Queue: 3 jobs
Job 1
Amino acid sequence: MRKKRFRFFIFCLLLAFLYILFFSFPLGREVILKPVWYRVFSMEDLSSRVSESSGGESGVFPVKLASYFGYIGDTGRVLFLGRRDFYTTMSEKYFINYSKVSENFFIRRRDGNLESGFKAFGYPFFMGSDDRLFVVKTDLTGVSEIDFTGDVKWERNYSSIITSMAVKDGYEAVGVLNGKVQLLDRKGRVLFDFRDQESKIPVVTGVALSSDGKYLACISGLEPQELLIFARGMGGEEKSLYSLYERRKLDSDFRREVFIKFSRDDRFLFFEGKAKLNVFDMDTGNLAGVPYAGEVDGVGYSLTDKCFVVIGGSDGKGNLLKLVYPLGMVKLVEILPEKFSFLRVRGNKIFIGFGNQLLRVDLERL
Amino acid sequence: MKRINLLTFIIIVVLFFHQYVFAFEWPLKRVVITATFGESRGDHFHNGIDLGGGEQKIFPIADGEVIFEYSDGFYSSLPIGLGNFIVLQHQGDVRSVYCHLKDGSINPGKKKFSREQSIGLVGDSGHSWGKHLHLSIIDLETNAFLNPLSLLPPVEDRQAPIIKNVYIKTGDKLEKIENRMEIKKDTITMVAEIYDLREDVSFVWKLAPYSITLYRNGVEKYRLVFDSISKHKGRLTLSNSRVGFDSVYVGDWKYNLGTIKLLTGENHFLIVARDFKGNEVTRDVFIFLRK
């Protein structure tokens, strides 16, 4: 009896040893968000204006908070701060702040000085890189690209309503209420045109472009709602350079514009799902979901740390910030005290805006 | 007694067939048309109608399913001039769009609306000067914006449009034509200043007419009908005549009636303008081409 018990003990010990030998993995260093600086913007800051040449500020980026907008440096130094009107559109260097019934618009440099003015029957907006300026008709039936004097470079009209748009590296993607998604080149010429026939109700609720324009993704249709990804150079036909690369039926049923965008390295496609943020790995084709109780407001991707930051949620507990590694592994969850309004991730630096406050935290490993 | 029974029968029949005659109902209880279909909006046609009458409940023009909506605070990649808006899909591939709704009045997440259920309240969100409802109707079959006044039950309108002035256009210059005129050049571009008026206000509030036709010596030369807007060769055009905004509007309420080669001697032009109710106004213009 005693011998039997001893054998059993030895067997358990061996089993434990084998488990440790084959199935153990080193625990990664703990990730923390280290607060670097915190600013509360108020009326007094509105006069803030710092000369770039004298300041030598590095890493200046545009910020939109609840009632303010401006250009802030990595160190938290304010280059310019203004009060938001009906709509404020910002590029890295310029901004236009306008009222809801404007016809005359003024482009200002990021130090607040006037660059130029123009007249337009629509709403101007910066999108993509190179300070490209577009005007969308107020009834959402057309979009044009203009120069800084208001001259139209190209224009495209739709006998329906534009629901979403994305611009990357000389390519523009437009999603339309009638279920059509169009890819345009830098001159507004149609490169690819697709209208889904699979869904019972055709409608495009979100579009995204990879940084080189190779991939075009959209959320299309109702009953069912689908993720469609088109890739350049997949089709054999000369006329259609883009062809279907991926089609996934989704469990979502969004009847509004959906957040969808590629990570900066184009490795991942982030898009809103039903109570989750979907992450589609372009390399492996895996689709993972990060649970969210409410809406996803923003996603930032850290190339240095190979992780992404998701922010949003409206489950009554405040707004959530989640630090997620590919394959949906949630490393860190923080609850923000106020409604999220801004997120920017650059390297290990994370800038988070809520209310009229801006916070910089750095990703660090203990 | 027999007469009452007959009357009741007629009322029942009318009520029953009403839904087939007019598939759609007005979205507001108090209907005040403040802008019509096809009006100039600076660089494009107005693709629906505007309804004033202050803050009131908006009802769908028919039972429908929500297919897209935007409400203040929603994610959007674009600046939204339509303000808070909602798009419903109805039977027969027809979609209706309700714009500039009051902030917070849309019930997000509600997917189906019956005719009796309110969508939201009239507001002035987005590109709007005051509280009004912009209503557009889209036919998915033909991919066109339809004039809602052609589809909704008729409303009272007793006044015909006004033809204020007629011009000859040379370059950017407009020269007013009196009823009789002698000219030497044989090709002219004719422009007419035409508008309809709101009847419920004492001041001048202009609306676009429904159609404008130009006849020369009894033969139709040009016709503009504001019944639908669709895409043709990359531009949004009036479906009937395939003319785009720049070809229709010369200025506010000034319509291009085309370029016409004159006949030697008398050219009798007749301009006919109608509103959506069929009220009509005409203007005769005589131009003599002297060789």
Note: The first helix of chain B runs from residue 2 to 21.
Job 2
Amino acid sequence: MTAPDRTAPPTPTRRSVIDWLIGLGFTGWFASVVYPVVRYLAPLSGSAGGAVRLSAEDVAKLDRGQFTIVRSGDARVIVLQVDGALRALDAKCTHEGCTVQFVPGERVVWCACHNGRFDLEGRVLAGPPPRPLGKWIATREADGGVVVTRGKA
Amino acid sequence: MSEGRRGRVLDWLDARYGLRPLLEFLKHKEVPRGGHSLVWYYLGGTTLFFFATQIASGVLLLMYYQPGETTSYESIRYLTTKVPFGWLIRSVHCWSAHLMIVSLVAHMFSTLMLKAYRPPRELTWVSGFLLFAVALGFGFSGYLLPWNELAFFATSVGTDSVKGVPLVGQWLLEVMRGGQDVSINTLYRFFALHVVVLPLTAIAIIGLHLLFIQRQGMAPPMAHQRQATPRQGLKFFPDFFLRDLLLWLLCLTALVTLVFLMPYGPRIPGIDWELGKKANPLAPAYPGIKPEWYFLWIYQLLKEFPPHLFGVEGPQMALALVTVLLLTWAVVPWLDRRAVREQPSPAFNDLGVAALLFIGFLTLKAWDIGGLRPGQTGLPDAAASARACAFIVLGAGAAVTGLRFALARHRWFALSGAALLQVALHGLAGVGYLTAGAISVALAAAAIAALRRRPPKEVAAP
Amino acid sequence: MIAGLPLVLLLLAADPPDGGAAASRKLPDYLEELFQEKGDDGRPVLSAEDRARLEALPEHTVQLIAEKMDALTVSGAPHLKRLLSLDLSPQLAELVFQDNCIVCHTDAEAQKKQNLFSPDPKADGSPAHLSLKDVVSDVHFRKGLSCSGCHGGSPAAPRMTADIAARWPKKEDRQKGRAWVVDFCGRCHADPSFMRGFNPGLPTDQVAKLKESQHGLLLLQKGDPKAAQCVSCHGVHGILRASSPRSTVNAARVPETCGHCHADAKYMAGYTRADGSPLPTDQLERFKASVHGKALLEKGDTGAPACNDCHGNHAAQPPQVASVAQVCRTCHAQNGALFDGSRHKLAFEKHGWPECGQCHGHHDIQRPTDALISEAPDGLCGSCHREHAADHPECNQGAAYFRATIGELAASHRSLEPRIERFAELGLDVEPILASSAELEEGLIQSRARIHAFDRGGFDVAAAPARAAVQKTEALLAAAEQERRFRRNGLLGAIGAGGLLALALWLKIRQIDRRRRDQGT
């Protein structure tokens, strides 16, 4: 019987148990550190975006035939008045998210970034945008004010 | 990970950057072993760990904190109430700050006791001292950032003390404050300091400090403390490093437990970070306002000086004294001639103990320990407080001296004796603090002179 | 040492002499002589203090005093001392020394004790109403209406004359009754055009009112000398404006003034109420223990009512059942309005009960507690309903409903504070909970007030929001508890994970150590 070979690697089972334990422990510990940090860094959910009442200046702009863009929570909404009827659409272009604008003479909502065009219902007329603009509802109040609320999906 | 894969990556790097010498160095790096001293070698690492925690939690806080008149306080309130785990990050940052300073001070005193500053490691001590100053700067600048009442008044009191610097005092005060009084401009400056200037400085000096240690190796204990057959040092990788990691893990666990149990700190004045009320510069300071605990000794020392002393303004003299004491501390490696010769240096052991007793008494007194009956409002009784603190410090001092005598076989007590004498004269006999100090220093000087005249023990018999 | 001597001398020289920096003023000869006068004990009568007082007076006043001395109106040093001891301001000193009445009547050597005005009547054995200190602060005196204004004569007269007592009733007349006092004071105070010259804002209807009052009835119609007239409340020589804190008719002192007679059982013996029962004399004691009394007398809150606010001043009458409630309403308007719309109002009117007083008392009103509506024997609702509303069970049910609701809300509120504090200590966000708790508190206050509507609907107007606040607060507390548990569990999980890793590391360290030992390193 030869003497035990000192240079042979130590028994694999005992070594890997501890290493496995280290790995497991480290994973658990790392998760317990990373989880709070990830939750901390996650942006807080934007406000539901309820009804927004337009300011007097914005209403004046509408009456002059210009468009206005208002904020509802995290969303941007473009409000315009054509032929006496109020319309409101998502102002965030469905292509890359640039803010759109209304071109009065052409009755078209246009995105300057990549020349996307939408009609007054939000449907895509031309350009790269893949989806129509979301609809919002703008109502004229008895006192002349304008309120914008989220429309159906 | 198989040897082969790791080996191939290392070969690739080595071919480009010549890593092998570095790896050999790391493989053979050792931590000295001898006597009871191995325990102390971990303290530098824990300080570094807490500092790393500060950086991590600080960066996270930066993502929500907004400095500004209407946003500093509000953003922290938002952070601690609405942001998920915001309370955790903030509390971790506050706790870790205090733990870092405790660890730093322990590290500093242990290197003093072990004489790790002796040649060739003088600059390691000096860089360490600078890091101590930077850490205090971090604490001071960070304290103001929540812009709450406590921070506002503590900063007013703290910055006021620089008036005492001769010639440039007033200018310095205005530059620090960004105006005559503490205002939001002060906060902007402190923010820049806390988030950019001090971190860069700290990282640079830590880099130097670690570079020195890598280059020179960790200081071995003094010759006389090493055992007859010196053991081989502990390998840094992986032995010491794993122990280091384990200790850091335990520190982190302790930190999180403290955060949960005491989210606003132990609620001692100077160690309490409940957000409270927003700073109102027009409101009168509320009684009992105190700076952070590590500044309390300076604050109390300033209070002990009369408005004028020997024709010089009290605050100026106090600041001068503090400067002298700190500078003395900074140049200890050059003062300790005996350690240079690898001989026992009892005077400097005693200096360490004396410093702790001196600072301890002033800190306790600054907290008005024993000066206020429970529920009593109004000004605390300074004499009663001095008495109570004297009892505590004398008791602790007696215990420490006993232990030193019995266990560590120390026989040199001139400086710590002077510190205790000052405490006894001032607290028990009612002698003025400065007078008691003068008497104690004089007696200590006389004792040291007498000791010097005695023939040295090590002289061998002819 | 030697150099110190001149210094000491200098210091001594710089030490100012006793009595003032400048040399004393030269006083007129007559007065200087007085300072030589010695008393029975051989010491000078007038002291350095008196000299200082004299010197503080302006030149013309000192001249005036000298003239009085010359005329023997001021008879000597003791007399002057008494006058100087008042420490008067120069203007008042001028007034006093000009007035021969006062000057003569302060002369202890010339006056009988019963006519002697003194700075300390008790010490001099003279009647209490002849207090010199009172007279010089008296509002009539300061307005220039001194002794002669009431007693007749002229202050310049050097001695007593017949016309001095012309206006003043003779002793027999004075002692026959007290009714003459009213007309005496009223001679000026009921004359608007006269009073306009002194204080246009002062009312002049006091006499008319008094005639209608219970006091006036007794005094003028029944000729009762014990009934209160002007002097009883205002005093005679030391009359002060009601706004002065020392005045007997100042709001805070009114209870004491009224109580002077009305709290004295011996004095009030024999007086009865309309129904024949004796007039009580414990009102002052009860008032002092009441919430109004404590507010007025202990806290100095002059918004709280004194006797005159409910009973009237000059027209004091025992308040009629209907009228007191109106008085309560002047401050307690909301409760009054609620009560007016309630069914208790009709019921109380039917029984002829005072509205507020029936439940809350009169003189001994205490801070109302929830015990008032309790079911216990000392609770009010049950005891009354049993007797007078036995055929209306819904009354007791209503009372029970109020009781139960208030009790529930109060209990919820009480239980909140310790719980909120605990969460605050643990670092949780308690702002919304505190806001909700404040809403509950507000609701509780309103609910208690709305009991006065004696109607479930009216009560629920306040109780419903309070109950909603309770729900909200409980929900918030439950959420906070959940958060606390989440944090605790998170910590335990983190400690567990950390502990596992620590264990693994420790085992690894041991393994490496063992390997080193085995390998002989």
Note: Chain A touches chain C through 17 residues (CB under 8 Å).
Job 3
Amino acid sequence: MRNQPAAATASRPQARAADLTVRRRAGRRRSWLPYLTLLPASVLIASFVVFPVATVFYYSLQQYDVTRPYLNGFVGLDNFRQVLTSDDVFRTSLAVSVKWVGSEVVGQLVLGMILALVLNSAFRGRGLARSLLFSPWAVSGVVVTTMWKLLYNPFTGMLDTVLTRVGLIHAPIQWLSDLDTVFGAVVAAELWRGVPFFAIVLLAALQGIPTDLYEAAAVDGAGRWQAFTRVTLPLLKDAIILATLLRGVWEFNNVDLIYTMTAGGPGDLTTTLPLYVVNQAIRYHNFGYGSALSVVAFAVLLLFAVLYLRLGRFGRDD
Amino acid sequence: MRTPLSKLRGPAAALLAMLAVACGGGASSGGGSASTASAAPVTITFWDTNAGPDRTPVWQELIKRFQAANPNITVEYTGIPIAQQLQKLQAAIASGAVPDVANPLTSQLSGMVAQDGLLPLDKQFNGWSGKGDIPAPLITSIRALVPDKKLYAIPISGNMTTLYYRKDWIAQKGLKPPTTWDDFYTDVNALNDPAHNVYGFGFRGATGSASQLENWVFSEAGLTTYFDSKGNASIGSQAAISVIQRAVGLYGKQTSKDDITHGFPEMVSEFDSGHAAMIMHNLGSYPQHITALGKDAVGAVTLPALSGGKHVLLNSPNISAMVFKGTKHADAAWKFAAFLAAPDSVSYFNEKIGQIPPNEKVASAQWVKDNAGIQNALATQKQSNTTLVNPPWILPDYSAIESQMEPSLQKMLLGQVTPSQFASDLAGKLATSKRQYDQAHKP
Amino acid sequence: MTRRGLLDRTGTIYLPLVLYGLFTLIPFYSMVVLSLHAGGSATGAFTFVPFPITWQHFDALINGAGFATYVRNSFVVGLGTVVCAVPIAILTGYGLQRFKLRGGQVFMLVLLMTQFVPAAMLIIPLFIIFKEIGLLNTLIGLVLINTTFELPLTAILMRGFISGIPFELEEAAMVDGCSRFQGVVRIVLPLLRPAIVAVAAFAFVGAWNNFLFALFLINDQDLYTVPVGLSYFLGEYNVDFAALAAGGVIAVLPVVLVFALIQRYLVGGLSVGAVKG
């Protein structure tokens, strides 16, 4: 039975109306009808996701190389044992993944918030600014990586050319080869692409905050920063949680940018866990081992999602 | 206007074609049965596993010629980017939704046969008029790649690892061209000018790095066999390790530090934009270098000789035509494959892409004589003191092992892994793979 | 006050705007320059201005590489995904939000879990499913698979928007004699219209830019979408940077234009209640 929304005042006509609806529903005995709303989504997921994900779980217990059938067979938990106890790359890639997701989500959130606040103010050309600044998110993945790779090219790329011309540096910086800069360089490219997502969601959420709340805060003597932390942020809490969770999961599993820019290198420096999974399963044909890695990643993500939602108390009505 | 529903057109047409063939009495099952099906219109699908702006037009021209000579056969071309081609082929074989013909490299053959995806072409090949033009050793080596020694691929293009160097700079400085390894290192040092952003050598540090290094090591260390009699890989030998050490020693000094992330495009860009004096690649990029720098600036030779003038060269795989087991038009598919392997097509294709035509009739063509890189490769191959070594393409995971070593190679360039560790790791993987294969295929 | 005000505005609006604008536009600028420049195809070398200008790269794309077909296919898949994803998102979001269903939170987790495995691992089983159902090599198949994988984003966002529409409004309608369904159609949907636009935009861009499914589940070159068409320029021996740049421009222009048109709705509408969650 659904809860009634906590109405500020339950007036008598409203209470009677609520009773009516409850009685109506009970009378019709259509308690399964609400579940019908989940039917189309469930059908799609059942058709296209359940079986493929199940095969990954299935193969995690196998040695499976499609080009070497003479080695294939059930190996029980051996793959998992190897992953968890003797695979250094697994550990480093998990660490890189955490670093990657952390930097991206925090970076995109902060920049997205700033952008949203700026684009929330009134100024001439706001509409144009919004369209332009949201557009990186619409660019195709292969174009994004190619363009950024060109930018970073120390011989022919824009960055080093301009910086040398202006005199800020004397020798070209090897953005994607230098161990100190490569991670930041790849992070910057993904930031470029991902900030608009946050900007859009947060900008919209900002619109829903009644201006009288800000006025009340101003009357109380709150400065701009206090208004932000006391009024804006709490009301954006759910939007932030939702956006960061969705984005976090997406960034975790998205390999195309890193793969094309550095292929996970130099060494294992930018190899995230899903990149390692794809390398093992697809490039090296160790599909069984790659599946086991994938299952472990799945568990990590599930744990993270559950904890995150619990901690954020997402969806609880105020 | 085409709508998604129009996709039924394809299968419907294929169904009609099959019915026509069945009624016409020509069975389309693998064999070389006399084809009475030639009258009925047939559509076959061809997947290009290396689609790109320079190759696709060549294939389309070949298809045009084929269709002109065989009016009842239509060839549908689908281009697949090289980065995903293997996975797509494997998915197709796994599900049965295969094309009729494709053009993968012979290095992929053993894996695809292990998946039971290909049609053996022995009968068709033996009955083919053009079979004598293809060098017999090449056919034998292709048969040797699979357990049942049947012929699953017809070669249409050959390749060779090539050392490209700036002929003009060498001449300017009065240096000797890098035809021996000593000359190579002399030239690399002499042409190195980091102050002006020019390096002696362009190292391939990213995708394809391990393969390239392997070619280098075999040539400079003079390794004449891939595995020794005990099944150890010669890449793990002391001679090999010394060469690796020397090669890696160039990194950062005679090569740009950026090379560690250089895959093919970056490496070629470095050479073509005048920032590297020499690179190693294969004949396939020769046309591109000439376009960028001009014919007089680019020298193309095989990997250098050892001090006695002797060459050891690791062979490169062949582009080949393969027919898939699930094909419903085996006769038409074979016709297309045979067409691609015929002298005219081989000549046209290889002239356009700058690679070696594996066909006796084409070897004396004028364009072959005019291509300095190919001439050099052919001449070196024919020398009596040249040893040609075949990589173990029979091992289905050979390419995967090479890919697996790429992160380790980068670590080696960074000094985090020693050449000795790298070599023994690689040798160990190769030996294990060979042992597992031999065990599984005991006669 | 004006001097102070201007300084203030500069600091909080114009400066961040310009800085971020530079960051956003520089890659675009280099992309446009590269696509118009006569040289630089093979090396992608940077030049400040695209002189000498040439249209050859765009020409090669549209006439040579058949890019018009790819753009058309991408539109079909994109619009198809919107048509499928938006109603399902509304339905699912409404169900999750309005009926505090037992297992609602679990269902949300299930939605999220569809994103927990890298897509590359799912290709072969998907391939097999598609072949069995007969969806292989069809644009409809792409529409369905994109809809499925956009579900977490679209449904969960929609749930948030719906939560901001007070249920009292529907109740009032039902008291007046409407059925629940009519209540939704008459009251909720109009209020949701801007939210629908937002979710549609996310769904469209997601489907427009999808590469993996489009490459693996389509065998017919005539049905290739834009991302697959673009990857054609990443050949083994030749990366045609200028063509890729031109392709990127062609690929992004329609989406940016659509964006420009709808950005006003985007903001107006998500406002209704993404706040409350």
Note: Chain C touches chain B at residues 42-45, 60, 65, 76, 120, 123-124, 127-128, 131, 136-140, 215-216, 219-223, 228, 231-240, 243 (CB under 8 Å).
